[in-house]
Amino acid sequence: MGILKYNLSCEKEIDSVCFASSIINLSHFLANTESNVVRTCLIVISENTAKCIKLNNLFNYVVIANSYKIKVKDRVLYRIGVYDDTLKMLSGHIRRAGVIYGTDHGAFYFMYRNKNKIVFEDGAANYSINNKNIIKKIWSYVLGDNPAPYGKGYKVMKLYLTKPNNCKLNENKIDIKLSLEKAMSICSIPMPDMGETKGFGILLTQPLSEDGILSEPEKLSIYREIMLKEGLTYLKPHPRESSDYSDLGEVIPGEIPVELLLLSENRPGKIVTLFSTAADYCSLVDQSIEIKKYGSFGNVKIEKAFYLKT
Fold first, then answer.
1. Cβ(279)–Cβ(291) under 8 Å?
2. In this structure, are residues 72 and 143 in contact, taking their beta carbons and an 8 Å threshold?
3. What's the rounded Cα separation, in Å, for the pair 288 and 123?
4. Which one, of 250, 224, 253, 227, lies nearest residue 238 by Cα?
5. What are the structural domains of the chain?
6. Exposed, middle or buried by CB within 10 Å (0-12, 13-18, 19+), for 121?
7. Using one digit for the tens of pLDDT, what is the confidence trace for 188-206?
8. Which residues pair with 254 in a beta bridge?
9. How many whole angstroms separate alpha carbon 144 and alpha carbon 111?
10. How far apart are CA 24 and CA 39, in angstroms?
11. CA dist., res. 220 & res. 235, Å (int)
12. Pairing of strands 3-7, 61-64
């Protein structure tokens, strides 16, 4: 069974669904969406995210176990109406939903690819060019995945970004202040005591191996070199990462939005990253913080995937 918790507290019928990939992605939705919409929306979150937030702050939610995996055969069987209890429950809500909020990628996308979507920023990929070759796009479509995710694809009514391109009519600006206030109100993880004086640095890593851009050894090698070069003690993984960084330094829980660390008394003075958009959020929260980006770090695979340079 994939469902760990399932709660409905609205008096009306659920009329929308939000698939939130992280605390900050969920906060963007909660802070930038009308309250009456939030009250009748079912929020779908992972076990990891659920452990880090105050669930009683949400009206309607379902928590999916980390161990729950959807295989290719499950997607095929779903198309002919054969599915387990988890997909059956979600399918009913998705079918009745007028709009899907949150992300337009992930394990459950095949269930709502033909629904209208309002997408909220979910990292640097929202600003990269979709460079999948035609074969990968066709294969993605066959599997039910999104061949053009992160707001670039089919039936995206609105795309909420912290740095929208005003040339695109469907793009809207995220109110980062409201998003961070909402994140602070729902986050249940105490801010880590890093035992340093104000001004220490943090490396923000990214899910480059999880997304198939680099191998795990390649990713670890790049981040090890940056940690040594910058003389850093702390690093914070992306929420979707599964890498073991314990040999590189002190690891801050990935589920904690780095932006919230800037609101703590003992906050960092420097953020180092390849090209994480979380670093841009940090500069919006605290303009005095030093941001250092390495771009592709000379890696051809990263350059090709994100059109970045060193």
1. yes
2. yes
3. 22
4. 253
5. 3-186 (3.40.50), 201-306 (3.40.50.11110)
6. buried
7. 887 777 666 566 899 999 9
8. none
9. 8
10. 19
11. 12
12. antiparallel
